[in-house]
Design a protein that fits this description.
The protein is mostly helical. The protein contains 16 helices and no strands. The C terminus is likely disordered.
Length: about 375
Amino acid sequence: MGGKAAQLVAQTYAVTLLGLLVGITSARSLAVGERGTLALLLLAGQLFSRFGSLGFEQLLQRDGLTRFRLSTFYAAAGLGSLALLPLMWAFMQLTDLPRVLVLSTLGAAFVVAVLRMNVALLTHLERFRELFVLNLLQASLQLLLFLAVFTTHRYEAFYAAWLAAVALAGGLSLRRVQPYRRAEGSRQPLAVWKASRRYASVAFPETVIAFCLELPLVRLTLGEVSAGLYAISNTLTNIYFQVFTALSAIVIRQPLRGRGAIYLVVALMGLVMALVSAPLTALLFGAQYAGAAAFVHWMLPTTFMLGVARIEQVTSSRLVPFAWQGALVALFCVALGLTALLPPPSLVVPYIAGCYVTYSLILIGLSRWGPVRPGSPSGTRT
């Protein structure tokens, strides 16, 4: 199990390095404010794909296609994307993004959801080499396309390049899972949503930290420049979170014991990243982004707590009732939304960090000592 996790971590960081070059390319081509706008556009497609298929990846990573056909997952993701269309429009209004991009955002959300579900299936099948090649090709193609539009200095060109890279990667992933698309299983899309409830509170924090749900709030309260800085800080914290993502993909099927030593090692990695974040940011992205390090210092401990909460949840023998999960997520969203009402700008990011840490601690507590749903006795995997 440790070897599999190490392999996934190594492959993830090989691809993440290319992703870092992608971020550097756009940061050095665009003004800080426009870099923030581009980050919001990329966020919209990926964020709504996650919310439209919340928990689907975890369900596929654990059970594969033993319960549902792959086409059923696709149909459920499509319904989820359509259901979120009004929310997408509201997102565009709130962040002052071009309304004409709503439909492209809807299409991107569905394509990204399909791509991530195919990746989750390959992870379940332990086809790590194919998974690595697929991710590497996507990152390489996006880097090449970003270099091609570098001289335009327009965020619209970078967004179009990202759409092209995701679409081609999605098509390639469909070819890799083609032999499994006819596997027997339920054809009821709504049943996928019911089954994925078990992972709702697991998938939510990963969705938020990976795709920066708070970025629109930072833009609203602190302005475009701060949003650009925050987008860069999120790139670095997301690199850190990749360790927990790789670990959870393995332990979701094989419970992990003796986690304290692992958490200590990952915490030390975070400390090192915090120490080098200021010079590293200025070196990689340019002196104009040096202020992003202050955001990194606040969000690295938060990222660690979210990662611990995720590992605790997927290895827990307790199946927390969905009503509890829904209430926790709703309270978190309300608390995060109150960021917009904070009068002193200096409190915005610390408050956001506090919301995440509180959420993580509650989730860890529920995973260890929370109630067990009837029919799911404590001490057994459900």
